[in-house]
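Researcher: I'd like a structural prediction for the single chain below. Treat it as a standalone chain; there are no partners to consider.
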Amino acid sequence: MLPELLAAFHEHERLVIEAEPGAGKTTRLPHALLESGTVGGEILVLEPRRLAARSAAAYVARRLGEPLGRRCGYRVRFDAAVSSETRLCFQTEGLLARRLRDDPDLVGVGAVLLDEFHERHVATDLALGLLRLAQARRREGGVPLRLALLSATFDGAGLAARLDARHVRVPGRSHPVSVEHLGPEELLPRRGEREAPRLETLVARAVRRLLREGVDGHILVFVPGLREIGRAADACAELAREAGLLVLPLHGALPPAEQDRALAPSTGRKLLLATNVAETSLTIDGVVAVIDSGLARTPSHDPFSGLPRLVVAKVSRASAAQRAGRAGRTRPGRCLRLYTREDHDARPERDAPEALRLELSEALLELHGAGVADAGAFPWLDPPPAAALEAAEALLRRLGAVDGASGRLSETGREMLRFPLHPRLARLVVEAERLGIGALGVAAAALLGERRIRGPAGAERRASADLLLDLEDLDAVARHAATAASLGLDPAACRRVAQGRRQLEGLLRRVAPHASRPAEPALPAEEETLCRALLVAFPDRVAKARSAASGERALALAGGGAAVLARESAVRDAEWLLCLDAEERPSGPGTRTFVRSAAAIAPEWLLEAFPERVEETRELAFDPVRERVEGRSALRFDGLMLAESPLRPLPSEASALLREAALAAGPEALSSAPGALAELFARTELASTLDPTQPRLDAAAAREALARLCEGRTSFAELREADLGATLEATLGGDGRARLERLAPREVALPGRRRVRVRYEAGKPPWIESRLQDFFGLEEGPRVGGGRVPLVLHLLAPNGRAVQVTTDLAGFWERHYPALRRQLERRYPRHAWPVDPLRATPPRR
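Model: Treating it as a single chain, here is the predicted structure.
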């Protein structure tokens, strides 16, 4: 097929090459392009993994009979083997975006091949879009740029139609592979066992079975990650010794020499324990059997911080087919899948592209670096969700990587692009470098990128940041050969942090030769400076601690939401802190967010770093307990209270709040005496009945008067002191008040110069009450209403209780008094009870 493919490269700008496993698309096609001269200029082959790029370049260099780095070389993160003679370069996808920042038209490049395109990493889609833009610019200049997408497991025809490309299908030379699945009963606990078999147990059983059945070549085992590789190696150690198997790990974090050892031909049999780096682009001579766990650590992102992470997930059916095909590259083989056929058939055909499911701030930063300000207009093969693009852009603005006004990359953003890190971690390194603690910032970034190096244990030490304790322990491991396990650390994770730290330190020295190196351990001032740098990198993860009834450290998050500081955190005393790592954990009937890693900050740092997010407010509220309007001046950071103080004097808006509260309470609650308003309403009702020109006062009038009284006042006490009844009565005017007093007086006179209050109630005749003796000498009771309305008389015994209620005083003296006199005389002998009350004088009180 090579002649046809070379002709297609000569005739078409874009190719989609669907080549079955074993066809040689990774090595034979680039080699042929180089040797034939079909493509003028450099040939770039983009690989999804560093191991694939290195091994493919080494293979092609051997076929050329040249040392690696002459005509054929590679570039991967922190490593390269190239020279001025290199014309065929295998490199990882992410490096292309960095090259395009400096050379957007890829001058001197004749063709770019995207190998294993079906994996559809974010970097893959980003590279494809940038290459399409470069193609368009090159086309206008008359210098074509060839582009080819290669894979064994994608819909080549459909993809070619979407890209207006030539589709070529190449058959492979795979040998038959028999595939077997576990039965459901093999995944259940055996007799006498309490738990289902662990993955390493299933691997050991499968290896034992293959050895028992006489497999005579290498065995390749796919497990999710380094931890599982270690456990499987321990579980198979005895079997391997008995069978003479060399147990070798194979993963992307291995040093190149150890990777080469796993891939190199050998006369002895190997048991290769690999992650999905061995799934594609690699041919390992002598592999005759594959054991597939059906699992892989796949890219995801922390929903709390957005930082990338790997999660264990089931592989797709396409990946399972790729894994099985590793056993049929050079001879017929076998594949044992450690899961059921039903499980396999229920899996998706292919994984969804990462751009549709991952956090995209790193991709958008690369686009800004390439001069693409509008990610929505970028030629994505499958456009990401608009919400994901908006969230990523918002984070870049908060980090200062993008100018909020212009939407263009800022100087800070350009500095961040120097580091192959997530934007948060790149911003941390940039800020730490500016503050003079570049190496400490690099160490923190490497640690945060790994996310966890220790298990959940209660924190016995205290620190201003959890990661400072982790860095202290890592330094102890490096300096004193302390074992990571003795300090409660994950050894593999520690090695990864150390490797990333060394690589970033080398890059930092290149871009900032004078970057300071902190003392080990960091000094207190450097610890505080690091926390300041962390604040700039995690500006949206500010929290304020408050104590909960359970004794937990409850956290209120800036912008809303709540969390709990996990017990393993060493940041126990800070009121303000950053949440660097959190997870959802079961709590009661649901789940809650627990912050595992935090860093203490000072509230004044927020004012210094983000003044635009600090809001000064004046808050007024009516306090129902104190019955007054109270105000406070407050500074808030994204809703969290920074500081507050009483507001003096209160602004005019306080009157409106008082009016609202007063009208809700009602006029009666704010009158000078209970029932005073109701009595005033009844007086004006009686007066208006007797004289239609007399105005009537009612509840509506009282509410209007109350509303006016609130002006300039701030408390119920002030309203009561102002006397709502007198204010309301004043609305009658001088004549109205005089007429009211004449028709419905407040008091009437009794014999003996005694004045008695007249009681008025709505719908009832007015009445008075006094001692029966006070009415001696009075033949007729008092009247109101200009003499037209007799008062109801409540005649009281010496004990204050009424012995008679009447409006006919003369009739009472004549008909009832004689009998009542005898009763009262016996009960109250010290009081005078004259026989003739009309001629008697009221006694002194």
